[in-house]
Amino acid sequence: MYSQGLIGADGRSEETQAFLDAFQKRIDAEEKIEPNDPMPEGYRRTLVRQIGQHAHSEIVGMLPEGNWITRAPSLRRKAALLAKVQDEGGHGLYLYSAAETLGVSRKQMTEELLDGRAKYSSIFNYPTLSWADIGTIGWLVDGAAIMNQIPLCRCSYGPYARAMIRVCKEESFHQRQGYEIVMTLAQGTTDQKAMAQDSLNRWWWPSIMMFGPHDADSQHSDQSMAWKIKRFTNDELRQKFIDATVPQAEYLGLTIPDPDLKWNEEKNGYDHGPIDWDEFWRVVKGHGPMAKDRVKARKKAWDDGAWVRDAALAHAEKRRARKMAAE
Ligand code: BYC
Question: How much is the pLDDT for 7?
Fold first, then answer.
């Protein structure tokens, strides 16, 4: 695990106004904050929470798509899906490493995921019922992820910002492979087009919810924006996503399941219908349709991997003892 200086965040250095002002000055000057730099404890905690949740989302996000690897309709589709799911695993690992630079171990973060203290994206609590869902996830879920994550490449915390550059390049490929699957179905037989439409009907609203609560109800946005962890608010990103996605649906000949969706000349964007926030909070609080299965699968993977972690530790210990004996 990396370590970081924890100056100001260690409970020993006092977070005086002068210290907080100097920190904010660095942020305002667009300087990157690095692991050994002094930082307020709140900044560190916000990052651990967000990066941890983000890492868990990538790892849990492997499950709904992994479910279709053996049922992909052709070798080409299977190879692309396999690569995509592996990419998500890689993203999770960069992100756990970025969080480790803030003094929290991957073991600790995993335990928090398994006992329900840590969140992961609401979107992965929905089931993948048809092959079209694999296309729709790439198109909408990766599309939403890119919208949210491109600005994170400019996040004030260096390790997170740098991890996001490669993540975004790969997400962009994921979005395109998803859109291509949906396009093939939308231009296929009547049944295939119906499968694509059914999938869009089920995934549209959960994708819109991925951006989080409305700005007025977002408890962390103001501070995260001031610290330049977030560069846009939840509603700003949601609006950008809708504006980019509506023409894509029109091109496919599919209908977005929102009767209130209409172009608003004045704001130069689409108005949309009300979001079901009761559903959102139910899912966020662990009552999504697939929530129990997702955590159960992660727990099984963690337990099944215990012997690998034990073996790696025993091997490292043996090497260390051998090296000490030779010195
Ligand atoms: N699901 O004050 P707010 C991906 C929580 S993409 C669950 O606005 P913040 C992938 C929020 O955590 C998905 N929880 O929070 C794509 C907070 O609760 P806590 C992952 C949510 O942090 C394709 C409370 O609601 N992407 O991985 O300022 C394939 C109040 O919200 C959600 C990221 O994580 C949600 N949708 O803004 C495979 C990107 N929305 O923590 C994988 C990085 C909100 O106080 N994260 N909550 O208990 C972010 O940009 C921000 O954390 C969010 C929320 C925009 C998500």
Answer: 45
Separation of CA 12 and ligand 1 centre (Å): 31
Average pLDDT of the segment spanning 194-199 = 98
Distance, in Å, from the CA atom of 138 to the CA atom of 145, rounded to the nearest integer, reads 10
SS (H, E, C) 186-254: HCCCHHHHHHHHHHHHHHHHHHHHCCCCCHHHCCCHHHHHHCCCCCCCHHHHHHHHHHHHHHHHHHHCC
Token pair of 311 as six digits: 């073996």
* CA 255-261-265 angle, 5° bins: 125
Burial class of residue 215, CB neighbours in 10 A (0-12, 13-18, 19+): middle
- Which residues have a Cβ under 8 Å from the Cβ of 145 and sit 6 or more positions away? 171, 210
Please tell me the distance between residue 189's alpha carbon and the centre of ligand 1 in angstroms.
Answer: 37
Q: How far apart are CA 31 and CA 281, in angstroms?
A: 36
User: How confident is the model over 298-321, as a mean pLDDT?
Assistant: 96
Residue 122 alpha carbon to ligand 1 centre in Å: 8
Over range 202-207, report the average pLDDT: 98
Give the integer Cα–Cα distance in Å for 200 and 185. 12
Residue 164 contacts residue 170 (beta carbons within 8 Å)? no
Q: Residue 127: helix, strand or coil by DSSP?
A: coil
3-state helix, strand, coil in the chain (%, to 5): 70, 0, 30
The residue to mutate among 168, 218, 294, having the most atoms of ligand 1 within 8 angstroms of its beta carbon, is 218
Q: Is 219 in the pocket of ligand 1 (CB under 6 A)?
A: yes
Q: Is the pLDDT of residue 45 over 50?
A: yes
Confidence of residue 327 (pLDDT cuts 50, 70, 90): confident
